[in-house]
Amino acid sequence: MKLAILGESAADEAALEILVSKILNRPVELVQPSLRARGWPYVRDILPSVIKHLHYQTEAEGLIVVVDSNDSTIHDPSHDSEGHVPTCRLCELRRVVKHTLQHLRSVEGRAIPRVAIGLAVPCIEAWYRCGKDPQVTEAVWIQARKEGRFPYTCNGLKKAVYGTDRPSLTLETQRAHEEALRLSNNLDLLEQNFPNGFGALIRELHSWMHQANSTSQESES
Amino acid sequence: MIKRIKFHNFKVLRQAELPLERFTLLVGPNGSGKSTVLEALEGIRRKALHPLSVLTAGVPISSKTYTEVRLEWGKPFEGIATVARWHTSAGTFSISHIQITPDAEPPAADPIRAQLDSLLARIRVFAFHAPSIAAQVKLTPNAELADDGSNLAAVLDRLRDEVPERFEALNEELHRWLPEFDHILFKTPAEGVRKFLLRRQADRTPIPAENLSQGTLLALAMLTISYLPSPPPIVGIEEPDRGIHPRLLRDIRDALYRLAYPEDFGEKREPVQVIATTHSPYMLELFRDHPEEIVIAEKVGNEARFHRLADRPDIEEILQDTSLGEAWYSGILGGVPQEQR
User: Which residues of chain A have a CB within 8 Å of the CB of B263?
Assistant: First the structure.
């Protein structure tokens, strides 16, 4: 499947390519050159242009976007019924995507690209601790935000994952690759521990598969 | 490690105090004293600045007027300061190591003085210049990289001969930074003279240094410093991001951190204290996780002051809504040029 990944670094891209490929159960062919955004709020700002570029200039079928939540509001299923919660990065990105997709011109022979968004709570290193540290979960972080007392920080998670909070890009990419391979064999646990942030991503990707299956069944019948 | 530098009448730094970490990034407008800090270190190393050239403009000169740069040391020289003083009227320059806390080792003790003198003598301040980096050089024993990056061919040649495994690691890293090239090669245009070339991976063509892009040369110089087996103990670097593509800045950051935090990169050598300057919001952004490493230089009237970003109590709150680079550019963190109104 031809996809684009909008990440902060080559390390994020390496991990997401492995995870997404496993979720979709098919190889991922990345659109070149690699897309980068320098964290929040740049991801939100650049997203409309990235979607337009993918639609008008590439054959990408979908876009994967994952952002760190840092200290922002963590997405909750109640947001979906309330509508857009501006302090939630997932809601904010969904709003931007919805608005952008609505205004795309149609291109002959091309469907509108799909966009799947994930929220790493509080950062992608938390996902890499899944299965290694049971104290690192979305629920723990949400509770910590309520109490104002955090059992871990992003810098602390980096130290746990890389052995330093100043990892080189090479080390980050290598570890991201290793951890993503490990997690790809235990996606259920990752979804269980990060039901909103990773869960949102996996559910969106599953919906792509269902749509693809339904379309192929329809065309067969 | 230098814990703090205090300036008195040193150019724009009339009365300023600069807190330092193992790695410190100085940001601020032109003329706010960033380069002056590096110039002071260079002056102390050379013990050669002309008194009148360092004096703050506009300060009345009398027999009591002096210019001073005071380096306060951290471990293992805690409690000791090195004072460099220029007496303007007498035209003299002196450097002394003084005891500033009662429990410190006596500064007069020869071993400590000798160690500090040796440290000061090995300070290096780099402001790279692409044509100098590319220039062919005469080979000399113990060749070192010059302030403008010249001598790079000799330094690389020495690294290849003396520590080949480091040279290979540098080649690998270079290829990762600039995938177009896969190896550093050498040529001997005349006896005892070296120049370097980078081999283009696609067609194995060696590209002479003088034909390489400015950014490639600047990146190679930065990378080389970080791979030296015994780098200088204190390094100042003027705009290490200059001429470098924004996407490569993360690698530049890694090279700076490799110098300052060798243990995090599997290195077994002593850490280097690094002081770097930048005008790039992109570069600044990469240090967001460590506000203690960022010092904002501010020009107020005719003088400059420094403040550490981490000392600002609301910094975490501010960075919840925006990037560090953007926050700095906006002016809310200070360290931006004054505008005429």
Answer: 164
